[in-house]
Each structure stands twice: as C-alpha cells, then as structure tokens.
C-alpha cells in the first residue's frame, strides 16, 4: 500500500524493544506521527513471548496488536494505525548504510542494528525529523553520539516528581490553643474550625497533619477526611507490639489500620520502617482477612534470569525474599518464644495464612479477603501496578511500599516507575492514603549512612 503524502511537520519515531516491553500499546500513543519498528525489535520480542512475567505478556500483546493492524497488508510498507488523527507504521528490514553503528562501536549488537535503522531513515527521509524512542539510557546516548535525536518514552511518566514528594501530609501552625485542646478532648473537629481563613486551600482526600498551636508545646497529630470535611485525632497505637517512633510512622500505622482505606502507598528510604509497619498492621488485623500476602518483584543480579542461580526453585528465590522474612522475625522477636503471639506467627506460616512469595507467583490469582503487601514497588511498571490492583476482590486491602529513588530495574526511573505513577494518579481518591517516611529508625549507624554517605 502506497503511503499518502505526509506533512514535513509529521515526525518518524523509531521504537526500541524496551518501549514495547514497558507498554505494548505504545505504538498508538504518538498522535499523528509515524512509527517504525526495526525487524531486530520483532526478533527480540520473539525471545520474550514465552513466560508468565509482565514483559512476556507485553511481548505477546504487541505481536497480536501488529497482527490485527496489518490484516492482509505487507507491513514493510506504511500501514495506517487505527484511530482518528493517527499516523502509520511499518517494519523496517536491516538497511545498508554508509554509516554503520556496528563498525563505529566495534561490536555487532542488536542495539546497533536499531541505530542503523534510525540512521537509514535520516538519510532517506531528509524532510522529516527522525527520533529514536528508548527506555535504555545508554542506547539514547549512543544515538545522540551519531547525531540521531533520542527520547525516553514519556506516556505514563510523572512530569514533576516534586508534586508527589509530600503528598498526604502537611503542617498547620499558629492555631488557637483552644482548637488543639478541643481536638484532644472531642477527638473530632470540623475542617472549617481548623482551616479558618485557609479554607480556600483545602487539601486532597485523606491527608495527615501536624497541628500546632500558638504555644510551642501545643501540638497534635490529626487526619483530615475531605469527604466529611473534618479532622480526627491520631493516637500512637501499637500494632503487634510495634510502636511508631515518629509522627510519620504514626500516620502510616493509622492508615494501615483504617478499614476505610483500601489502597495505600508508603514511600521512604531504607530503614524508615515501611515494610515493618505494613506487616505489623496486617498481623494486628489478621482476624479481618483470610490471608496475608507479602510479595516483591524479583530483580535478578546483572539482570539475568534466576535460572542462572544454583539449586531448586526455593533456593533460587530465598535470597530475594529474605528481607521480608527479616521483618517478620523482628516482629516475632518482640515476644518470648513461649508467648502465644510468637507461636501464632509460626502457625500462620504453616497454615498458609501468611504467605511470602515473589510477585510473579501472585499474578493471576483472585485477591478476595486478603491483606496484600507489595514490597519494593518502585521496581514495577505502571502496567504491573494496575494489573495487581485490578485483581482485588471484596474485603481486600493493598499496600505498596518502596523508594522511588532506588530503582533496580534498568528501564525505569523515579518518574516512570509504577509506585510514582500510582501516587500521582490516585492521590485524590477517598479509598486511598499515602505517607512518606523520612526519618530512619533502623539504627544510628544506618542513619549515618543515609545522611552522610
């Protein structure tokens, strides 16, 4: 099929495999511009199509989408994308170029074949801008060294990470001491009473506050319900003998124990108590749920599959699950071995009332009547986070914990990971709460490392 005449303002985007494994629908997100898929990308996707991981799902879905779009056409030619004001796409065979990335970089690699596709388009499509789109930073740098425009895939990316940094908490000071005293005594106050003239700047749903009076020693922790427009007092309560050690931890535990909050995110650096508080809160509410699931994504060392590790499947997975077991053991050690609370944890594990597993083992299950904790959620894609939440059935609570600045997967960053995406998209919903833990409570030595190293 011949391509219709195209405006010189229309761009050509060359997609890398990393973009498609991040979002199989990415080909549809470039408005009126045209898309080129190098044949090397299809070859790489073929290697990912088998398996139960998210990248395998993305690969399969993209291949099905191309098949649907191509119909009976030869997709080496420009093929229209379905939808109003959409461009076209085509598959590009390995070209012959004057400039050859394999020779320039001294090695034959698939990345260099993709660069060669972009170089060829620059030579033949002289009146249009050619842009390589990749989640791989190094590939973008190589492209720029060859004078090829290169960009990250922006769809789903948080534009301003600072906007979500302090979502969920705030400070209101210079309040009349009478307001602080009344909240202590009554437990609840209307929003109008607390905000006063600040009323026009009402916060989002489910926000935690430190309320401070005119006197230096007058303060109280409170939770603002936007739907009811009222404040409720927060007390530093224990959960399975774990006590909050600072205001943010008290906020977090309050939300963990609140049955009206069905979805929660806890952000913070290592040692701030994210997973510990979530697990302690889950154990405290064990009678309200059928099971407690703790899961985390597996990010293998050197990005190799865990099949490279020795031993059976349990031996391969144990190193990745060890931090979760450490938190559980810490909670258990708050009691004597003869205490019923200590033995109860062993019983829950033996009866599979408390299950610690890789996240891949949880996918596809129906999550009804479950308290679900997802650790290291910053290593998930937005699609993975959405997939998890859409599995939630009746009486299920999901808590995502992580640090958006500590990414272990190569194609995610602080703005494109699933945890940041989730915080940004749902922060105004009444079923949701978020808190950022800032103070490390692991030990003075751990705090020294976080602060000075």
Write the layout of secondary structure elements.
Blueprint: E1 12-15, H1 17-22, E2 34-38, H2 39-48, H3 54-70, E3 79-80, E4 88-92, H4 101-104, H5 110-124, E5 130-133, H6 137-145, E6 149-151, H7 162-165, E7 169-175, H8 177-186, E8 188-190, H9 191-195, E9 207-213, E10 219-225, E11 230-233, H10 247-257, E12 263-268, H11 274-284, E13 291-296, H12 313-332, H13 340-350, E14 354-358, E15 370-374, H14 382-389, E16 397-402, H15 418-426, E17 432-437, H16 444-452
Parallel strand pairs: 1-2, 1-5, 2-4, 5-6, 7-9, 12-16, 12-17, 13-14, 13-15, 15-16
Antiparallel strand pairs: 3-4, 8-11, 9-10, 10-11
Provide an overview of this structure.
There is one protein chain. With 453 residues, this protein is an alpha/beta fold. The protein folds into 3 domains: 140 residues, Rossmann fold, CATH 3.40.50; 69 residues; 205 residues, 3-Layer(aba) Sandwich (Rossmann fold). Helices cover 35% and strands 19% of the residues. It has 16 helices and 17 strands. The strands form 3 sheets. The protein has a 6-stranded mixed β-sheet with strand order 3-4-2-1-5-6. The protein has a 6-stranded parallel β-sheet with strand order 14-13-15-16-12-17, with helices on both faces. Strands 7-9-10-11-8 form a 5-stranded mixed β-sheet, with helices on both faces. Strand 5, helix 6 and strand 6 form a beta-alpha-beta unit. Helix 11 packs across helix 12 and helix 14 crosses helix 15. The termini are far apart. The N terminus is likely disordered. InterPro entries: P-loop_NTPase (IPR027417), PhoH (IPR003714), PhoH2-like (IPR051451), PIN-like_dom_sf (IPR029060), PIN_dom (IPR002716). In the N-terminal section; belongs to the PINc/VapC protein family. Belongs to the PhoH family. Keywords: ATP-binding, Nucleotide-binding.
């Amino acid at each position: 099929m011949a391509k219709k005449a195209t405006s010189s303002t229309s761009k050509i985007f060359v997609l890398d495999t990393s973009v498609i494994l991040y979002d199989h629908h990415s080909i549809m997100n470039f408005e009126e511009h045209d898309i080129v898929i190098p044949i090397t990308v299809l070859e790489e996707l073929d290697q990912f199509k088998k398996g139960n991981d998210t990248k395998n799902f993305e690969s399969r879905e993209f291949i099905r989408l191309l098949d649907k779009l191509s119909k009976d056409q030869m997709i080496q030619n420009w093929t229209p994308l379905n939808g109003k004001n959409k461009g076209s796409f085509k598959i590009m065979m390995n070209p012959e170029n004057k400039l050859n990335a394999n020779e320039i970089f001294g090695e034959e690699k698939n990345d260099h074949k993709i660069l060669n596709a972009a170089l060829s388009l620059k030579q033949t499509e002289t009146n249009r801008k050619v842009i390589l789109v990749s989640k791989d930073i190094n590939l973008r740098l190589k492209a720029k060294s060859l004078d090829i425009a290169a960009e990250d895939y922006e769809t789903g990316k948080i534009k301003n990470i600072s906007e979500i940094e302090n979502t969920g908490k705030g400070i209101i000071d210079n309040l009349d001491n009478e307001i602080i005293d009344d909240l202590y005594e009554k437990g609840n106050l209307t929003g109008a009473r607390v905000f006063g003239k600040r009323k026009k700047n009402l916060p989002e749903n489910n926000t935690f506050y430190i309320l401070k009076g005119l006197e230096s020693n007058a303060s109280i922790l409170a939770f603002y319900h936007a739907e009811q427009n009222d404040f409720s007092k927060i007390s530093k309560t224990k959960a399975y003998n774990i006590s909050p050690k600072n205001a943010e931890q008290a906020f977090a535990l309050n939300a963990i124990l609140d049955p009206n909050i069905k979805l929660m995110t806890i952000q913070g650096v290592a040692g701030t108590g994210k997973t510990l508080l979530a697990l302690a809160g889950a154990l405290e509410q064990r009678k309200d749920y059928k099971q407690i699931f703790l899961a985390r994504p597996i990010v293998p060392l050197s990005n190799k599959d865990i099949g490279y590790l020795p031993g059976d499947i349990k031996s391969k997975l144990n190193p990745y699950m060890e931090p979760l077991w450490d938190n559980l053991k810490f909670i258990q050690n708050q009691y004597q071995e003869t205490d019923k609370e200590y033995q109860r944890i062993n019983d829950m594990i033996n009866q599979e009332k408390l299950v610690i597993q890789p996240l891949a083992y949880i996918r596809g299950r129906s999550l009804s009547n479950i308290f679900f904790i997802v650790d290291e959620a910053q290593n998930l894609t937005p699609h993975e986070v959405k997939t998890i939440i859409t599995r939630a059935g009746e009486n299920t609570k999901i808590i995502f914990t992580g640090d958006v600045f500590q990414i272990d997967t190569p194609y995610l960053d602080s703005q494109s990971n699933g945890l940041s995406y989730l915080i940004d998209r749902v922060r105004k919903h009444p079923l949701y709460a978020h808190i950022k833990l800032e103070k490390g409570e692991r030990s003075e030595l751990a705090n020294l490392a976080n602060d000075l190293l």
